[in-house]
Amino acid sequence: MRSIVFLASTLWTAQPAIASAEAAPPAAAPVALAKPTAADLGALPFMNLPALSPDGTRMAARGHIEGRTVMVVSTFSATDTTSVTLPLPADHQVEWYRWAGDGKLLVSISRLSRFEGEEVRLTRVVVIDIATSSTIVAGPKTQGMDGDDVIYVDPAGAYILLSTQATIYDYPSVHRIELATGKSRQIVAQAQYVWRWFADASGVVRGGIGQTGGNWWVVYRSAADAPFKRTIQRKAGGGGTEVDRFEPTTGQDSGYAVATSPAGRFSLYRYDFRTDALGALVYENPAVDIDDYDIDASGKLRAVYYTDEHGMVEWFDPALKSFQARLNKALPGSIVRIVSTNRDRTRYLVWAGGSDDPGSYFLFDKTTNVLAHAFTPFDRLADKQLAPMKPVRYKARDGLEIRGYLTLPPGRDAKNLPLIVMPHGGPFARDALGYDPWVQYLASKGYAVLQPNFRGSTGFGKAFVERGTGAWGRGMQDDIDDGAKWLASSGVADAKRVCIMGASFGGYAAMWAAARNPDIYRCAISFAGISDVGSMLRYDRRQFSAPRYFSDWRERVAGDRNFQLDQISPLSAVDRMTVPILIAHGSKDSNVPMSQSRRLHEALTKAGRAHDYVIYEGEGHGFDKPENSVDFLERVGRFLDKHNPA
After folding, report:
1. Radius of gyration of the CA atoms of the chain, in A
2. Cβ within 8 Å of residue 486, ≥6 positions away
3. CA end-to-end span of the chain, whole Å?
C-alpha cells in the first residue's frame, strides 16, 4: 500500500518567504512540456476526494487499487502516516462517504437489481468500523430501492437517522440505526406524500416536505414529543417560492431554508416554522443558485457555497474568511478550496488546482502553523502540457443565453479547428471549470472542445431549468447544435470537422445526434449512453430529474402527457443513424444499465449499420481499472483519427 509522505512546503510566519530580488539567481529558461498520452490521462488517482475525521487524526479517501474502488484510511502520527484499505461489497459503486464519529465511516453503495422484470438501481449505506475493518449494512432488513438518505449523523458516531421506504409502495419513514450493532428502530412513521424528512443539529426530526399533484406543503413539530402539524398547501411552479430544504435550529422554532428568491434563484433565508413563512434573506448570488451552506451547532452561519464558473465560497465566519485569503496568497495562481476540517478546526485539508492542473491536496496544522503537501492524485501529469479551459457564452436559436466552456489545443491558432462538442450528463446537472481528462486528451490531439450548459442545466436558476421541460432530444439538443454552429460562424471551428462525444445523458445526446443531425456531426461517441428514454426513466427516475426544482419528472422529459418517448429515443431511430458511432459501456453500471448500449448495438447490427462497440467487464458508470480507462481513450483516438482526423 502506498503511504503518504508529508513535506513542509509553506511556513506562515512573519519572516520573508523568499530572498530579495537582488540576491535571487537568474531565472532559468522555460522547459518545454511534453504532451500527455492516453496512458497519462487514463491513469486513475491512487487516492482522491479526502475527508478528515472529526478528531483530525485520520483521513478517508476514495482509492483505486488493483482494478477496484476502495476506501483508503490514513492515520497521522507524530513521525509517520500509515494507510490501510477497507473492504467494500463486490459489484457495487461508491456514491458518497462521510465520517460517523472518529472511528466509523459511512459509505453509500449502489448496484443493479431487478423488480417485476425491470432493471432497477438499489442503494444502501455500509458502516465500516476502522479498528476492525468490519462492515454492516445500515437500515431495516426490508427497504425499498433508495436506502442511503441519511438525514442525521451523531457526532460521537453512536447512531444515524435514515429515511427509507419499507417497500417501494410505502412513503419514507425515519429509523434510528445503532452503528455498533446495526439494530434499527422506527422513530418517525411514514406520512402520506411526505418524501423528505429533516432533523435539527441535536438529531430530532423536526419537519418534512410533502408533494403531490403539483402541490407542496410542510409538516413540522417543535420537539420530539410533539405531533407533526401540516401547513397550508401551495402550488408548485408558476413563479412561486419553492423550498429545497430546511434546517431547524435546535431548541427553536426558526432556522434556515434554501428557497427560490423573487429572481428565481435558490438562496438562503431565515425560516419561521411557527408562521410557516420565509424570513430575512441571508444570501443570494446575483447569477447562480447556491449549492450548500454550513452552520454550527448553535445555528450560526459559517459559509455559503455556490458554483459560478467554478466552485466558490462566501465566508460568514471572519476567521475562515481571513484563512481563505492567506491560502490564496500562499498558493497563487490556483483555485484554492478548503475541502475538510476537523471538529475543533485545528487541521484543514486544502485543495489547489485548476482546469489545466488536476491539483494537489495540502494539510494545514494550526498548532504548528505549517501548510504541508499531502498528496497529488494525478502525479503522472506534473510535467505534462495541459490546456486551460475558458468560460464562453453564446445565444441559442431562440435567443436564450447558453454558458459553457471552451478548451483549445495548445500550440495551434484558434482558427478552423476540428471540434468535439461534449455535452454533460444528467441532464439536470452542469459543467464547471475544472480538470477533465477526456477534454485534455482531445485537446492534446489537436481538437477544440466545447462543453455547453444547455437549457435544463442546473445552477442557473429555476427558469433556466424549466426551459428543459419537454426539451430532451429537442431544445436541449438545439442548444448543443447551436454551440457548434456558433464556433464555426466565429471561425474558431471548421464546420466540416465536428464530432460529438458524451457520457450518460451526454452519451444519449451523442447517440441522438447521430440520427437527428448527420448534417452537423461527422461522428459520435457514447459512453454509458441512453438509447431508450422510456425504459431508462422506469429504471431510475432520480438519475434524470431535478428534485430541488420540481418533482413531476416524466412531464419534464416528455413535456406533454401524450408525447411518446420513443420519438426521442435513439433505439427507435436506427434507420436514420448514418454517421459512424462508437458505443462503450461498463457491464456493472448501476446508473445506466449496460442494456441501454447493448440493445442499440443489436439494432444497429441487425440493420447492417457499421459501428464500434465495446463493453468493459466489471466496470460501472466510470472506470475502476486504469487499463480500461486508457483503452477507452485510445479507442476514441483511433476512432477520431479515422472519421475526423485533427
Report:
1. 25
2. 394, 395
3. 41
Q: What does the buried/exposed string (b/e) look like for 60-90 if buried means 16 or more CB atoms within 10 Å of the residue's CB?
A: bbbbbeeeebbbbbbebeeeebebeebebee
pLDDT in tens, 607-623: 999 999 999 998 989 99
Is residue 503 over pLDDT 80?
yes
Q: In the beta sheet, which residues pair with residue 283? A: 268
Say if CB 9 and CB 17 are below 8 A apart.
Answer: no
For 518, counting Cβ atoms within 10 Å of its Cβ (0-12 exposed, 13-18 middle, 19+ buried), the class is middle
**Confidence band, pLDDT 50/70/90 cuts, at residue 112:** confident
Please, which residues bridge with residue 364 across strands?
Answer: 348, 371
Three-state DSSP at 572 gives helix
**Residue 636 parent element (H or E):** helix 626-643
pLDDT digits (tens, 9 = 90+) for 63-93: 887 777 889 999 987 777 888 888 777 778 8
For residue 216, the surrounding DSSP H or E stretch is: strand 215-220
Asked whether 73 and 39 are in contact (CB, 8 A), the reply is no
Task: Indicate the pLDDT class of residue 443, thresholds 50, 70 and 90.
Answer: very high
| All three cell numbers of 561 | 402527457
Place of cell 472511528: 103
As a whole number of angstroms, the distance between CA 75 and CA 129 comes to 14
The cell for 180 is 455498533
Three cell numbers written together for 31: 522547459
Q: Is the pLDDT of residue 625 over 60?
A: yes
Question: Measured between alpha carbons, how far is 358 from 377 in angstroms, rounded to an integer?
Answer: 8
62 is written with which cell numbers? Answer: 476514495
Segment (H or E) for 556 = helix 553-558
Report the phi/psi class of residue 203: left, alpha or beta, with left for phi > 0 and alpha for psi in -120 to 50: left
Distance of CA 637 to the CA centre of its chain: 26
pLDDT for the residue 154: 96
- Helices marked H in 48-193: none
Model pTM score: 0.85
Q: How far apart are CA 595 and CA 428, in angstroms?
A: 22
Determine how many CB atoms are found less than 10 A away from the CB of residue 587: 15
Backbone angles phi, psi at 574, to 5 degrees: -60, -35
Residue type, 316: F
CATH class of segment(s) 389-578: alpha beta
- Residue of 282, 281, 269, 352 lying closest to 310 (CA atoms): 352
Q: Provide the b/e sequence for 246-273 (b: ≥16 CB within 10 Å).
A: bbbbeeebebbbbbbbeebbbbbbbbeb
